[in-house]
Amino acid sequence: NKRIAVLTSGGDAPGMNACIRAVVVASEGAGHTVIGFEHGFNGLLAANWRKLDSKKVHNIIQRGGTILRSARCKEFKQDVSAKLAAKHLDELAIDALLVIGGDGSFHGAKHLSNFWDGQVIGLPGTIDNDIYGTDATIGYYTAIETAMDSIDKVRDTADAFERIFLVEVMGRHAGFLGASAALSGAANYVILPELFTDKETTLKDIHQQLSIHRQRYGHESFIIVLTENLWPEGIAELGVQLEELTGGEVRPVILGHIQRGGSPVSQDRMLATLLGVNAVRCVEQNKTGIMVGMQNNKPVEIELSQTWENRKELGDTLTQTMVTMLNERHNWGMTT
Ligand code: F6P
After folding, report:
1. How far is 169 from 71, CA to CA, in rounded Å?
2. pLDDT tens digits for 116-132?
3. Cα(176) to centroid of ligand 1, in Å?
4. Is the CB of 13 under 6 A from ligand 1?
5. Is 128 an annotated catalytic residue?
6. What is the rounded CA–CA span in Å between residue 73 and residue 324?
C-alpha cells in the first residue's frame, strides 16, 4: 500500500475538488493513505498538511475552488525549496505526490523530482486549457460555460442600446477559452493570440465586419470577444480606438476571475474523476515524471517536460471545422 500526497497549485479551476475527491476515494478503495498539502507548494515548504479520507471529500464534487487552497509559489524555483520539500515528504514517508495544476505547477513538480526519489505525477487543472498532451484540462469546460452565459447577457443590453461590446476573457496567452466562448456565444468577432497579426489589420478587419453587419442586420449590436494580455494598450484603449474608427458606441466588459468560479459542469467533473482515478493507477504501477491526460476519450500519460516543450494548437482541442470558422469569422457571426 502506498502513501499518497496531493496538492492544488496555481490558478484554481472548477473541478479541482472533484479531482481531489476521486484521488481520495480511489486510493482508499485500494488501501492507500492520502494526505493533502495546503496552499500548493507553500504547504510542502511549511509542512502544512492534513489527512484526507472519503468522509472529508463527501459532498465536494460540485464545489468550485479547492478545499486544499491554492497559491503561486515563486520561491519553489530555488533548489533550497525543493530540498526542503523533499525532506518533508520523506519525513512523512510519502511514496507519491500528485500535483493538480497548470504549466507553472508542473515545472515545480519536475524541479522537485530532481531532489526527491518519490513518484511525481501531474494532473492538468486550469481554465486556460493551455497544456499540451491532453485535449482538455479540468475547469476549461466550466469556464467556457460561464463566459458563454456572460456573452448571452451582454447581448441583451447590446441589443437594447445597439452598442458594440468588447468582452475580455481569460486564457493567459492561449485562445482556447476565447474561441469556445465566442463560438458558443455567437459573438460577431473574436481576437485570439493564435490568429492575431497586428493592431492595424485587426482594427481594419473589425471595421469591415461591422459594416457588413450593419448592412445585413440594420443594427449596431455587435459583440467582440478578446483574449486577455493581447491588445497592447488594453481593452479600454481598444474601445476608444473602435469608437473613433466606427462612430459607434463601445462598452468594454472584463469577465476576469468570475470565469474561475462556480460549480463545475458535468464534463469537468467527469474529466477530473477519470484523471484522479488514472493518477492513482499510475502510482500503483510505480510511474513517475508524467502527467495524466485524455486524448480522443482515451487516458494517456505524457512526460512532464513534454507538456511545456510542445505547444498546443487550437486544432488540438477544437475541430478543424471550428478553426476554419474562426478564420472566416464573417461567416459565423450569427447574432440576430
Ligand atoms: O491560469 C489561470 C488564470 O486565470 C489565467 O487565465 C489568468 O491569466 C491568470 O490565471 C490570473 O492569475 P491571478 O489569479 O494570479 O491574477
Report:
1. 21
2. 999 999 999 999 999 99
3. 14
4. no
5. yes
6. 39
